[in-house]
Write a structure and sequence with these properties.
Jelly Rolls, alpha+beta, three-stranded antiparallel sheet, single chain, 289 residues, seven-stranded mixed sheet
Length: 289
């Protein structure tokens, strides 16, 4: 049964998604099924990544049928040249380095919806760590990349008023595809304390509270599906235990007119730059209770 936050029959040609703002405000997430199914920018980006993956395979003497889907091609590539999959990850991460990807993240339907959620006074920005091309190959050794319950904001910073756009590039597998588990409505509790756990992953310190007080939903995605998440929504990754890779492009949009964001001058997390900021630099545990 489709959940209230799952919308079908709406695609990227829609000029106004503002009617779904109330759903976003209630659940902290809206999922548009098949949103990019006929979108030229989406398929340009999809095909660019596919062409690059095939080029890598050819460089290493690996023959892959180009008629295969992107996630099938990436699965074969990960079995033969796992490090090169990381190079593809970099092309869609911190920031997107492909023109087709930049055009996709600038889709007016998306940016207008983000603005309608944040309000007329919002001034949108892109945080440094805000873009990630996630590739989850199958295999138990890759489950370490699935994060425990967390909010996106402490990882990213720049502004607590921030939206994560989830653009799915892989076909849904029949079983054990993995995806995202969300605690719907949990964004209303605001910024929560965050602890660095094993593997340097952040985990929500008071996770028991959210498990006890909010209903969780498991969401899987098919190629062309699109979702927006409040970056304060509590969520965690669901392991991909299928025999095929899961592929998704994440893009964050921040409101730079948020008072908290202004107070620390819109800094993003940047582990390679002394000018970057950590969550703990501006949010003490005392502040969050």
């Amino acid at each position: 049964m489709r959940e209230k936050f799952e919308i079908s029959g709406v695609d990227s040609t829609a000029t106004d998604l503002s009617q779904y703002v109330s759903i976003f405000e209630e659940y902290g997430v809206v999922v548009f099924r098949g949103f990019f199914a006929k979108d030229t920018n989406f398929w340009n980006y999809y095909n660019d990544i596919k062409e690059l993956a095939l080029t890598i395979a050819k460089k290493h003497g690996v023959e892959i049928n180009r008629a295969l889907t992107l996630n099938r091609i990436l699965t074969i590539l990960s079995e033969t040249n796992r490090d090169e999959v990381g190079n593809l990850y970099d092309l869609g991460t911190r920031p997107i380095k492909l023109l087709s990807g930049v055009q996709l993240k600038s889709c007016p339907t998306i940016t207008n919806f983000v603005k309608s959620i944040m309000g007329d006074a919002a001034l949108l920005g892109f945080p440094y760590l805000g873009e990630t091309l996630h590739i989850f190959p199958p295999g138990i050794e890759n489950t370490k990349y699935n994060l425990p319950m967390h909010q996106d904001y402490p990882y990213i910073m720049q502004s607590p008023q921030q939206i994560t756009a989830y653009i799915n590039l892989g076909e849904l597998q029949a079983e054990n595809n993995g995806g995202i588990r969300v605690w719907a409505g949990s964004h209303k509790d605001g910024i929560s304390p965050s602890t660095i756990a094993e593997g340097k992953h952040r985990v929500t310190t008071n996770k028991d509270y959210f498990q006890d007080n909010y209903k969780s939903y498991d969401i899987s995605f098919d190629v062309g599906d699109f979702a927006v998440f409040d970056s304060l929504l509590q969520h965690e990754g669901i392991r991909n235990l299928s025999n095929c890779s899961r592929v998704v492009q994440l893009v964050r949009y921040s409101n730079l007119m948020n008072d908290t964001s202004i107070s620390y001058s819109w800094k993003s997390t940047d582990p390679r730059n002394s000018k970057g900021i950590k969550f703990e630099d501006v949010h003490s545990f005392r502040d969050l209770n």
